[in-house]
């Protein structure tokens, strides 16, 4: 089944160098597909498929494109600005409290944003890591300047570190892990950075 392929392939994407990635590997290994029934399927916009088929995209993109997933903007916050800025995102939580497969250890999701989009500064109690799988994105950690993230590269955000992300002329696709306090109650969206 294609979701199981994604879980298996993700285990080789995460490294054992960081604790958050070791936890992700462990949670993926413990996942049970016994009660999983595929939900409705929403197609990914073509722009995502284009970057996911590029030569530099990670191999797992082939499995992600084959899987029947319900792609939609994330609903982490009810903030009006957050909802507006999320329209150009595609997301599915595959493992976690709201995931296709349940886990209370981590949240793991697939997450992308169309080109020419910006998602402003946010903070949350969970520590987080993004690994780029396809396309090009730009990430800002704390007071640092935006840095380009290419397939295979990571952006790590300790608990409560403000971070923001944007795209230019390409879309991107990534996988993220949340570890620690997985609650979204204290997720804060502060809008687009000024500089
Ligand atoms: Fe985050």
Question: How is this structure best described in words?
Answer:
The chain is an alpha+beta fold. The protein has a domain at 41-92 and 111-189: Jelly Rolls, CATH 2.60.120.10. 23% of the residues lie in helices and 30% in strands. It has five helices and eleven strands; from the N terminus they run H-H-H-H-H-E-E-E-E-E-E-E-E-E-E-E. It has helices at 2-13, 19-30, 46-52, 60-66, 80-85, and strands spanning 89-96, 101-102, 106-113, 118-123, 127-135, 137-141, 147-149, 154-157, 163-166, 172-179, 188-189. The strands form two sheets. Strands 2-1-3-10-5-8 form a six-stranded mixed beta sheet. A five-stranded antiparallel beta sheet has the order 7-6-9-4-11. A hairpin with a 5-residue loop joins strand 6 (137-141) and strand 7 (147-149). Helix 1 packs antiparallel against helix 2 (19-30). The mean pLDDT is 94. It binds fe (ii) ion. Fe (ii) ion (FE2) is lined by residues 122, 124, 128, 157, 163. Fe (ii) ion is lined by residues 122, 124, 128, 157, 163.
Topology:
Layout: H1 2-13, H2 19-30, H3 46-52, H4 60-66, H5 80-85, E1 89-96, E2 101-102, E3 106-113, E4 118-123, E5 127-135, E6 137-141, E7 147-149, E8 154-157, E9 163-166, E10 172-179, E11 188-189
Parallel strand pairs: 1-2
Antiparallel strand pairs: 1-3, 3-10, 4-9, 4-11, 5-8, 5-10, 6-7, 6-9
Helix pairs in contact: 1-2, 1-4
The protein binds fe (ii) ion.
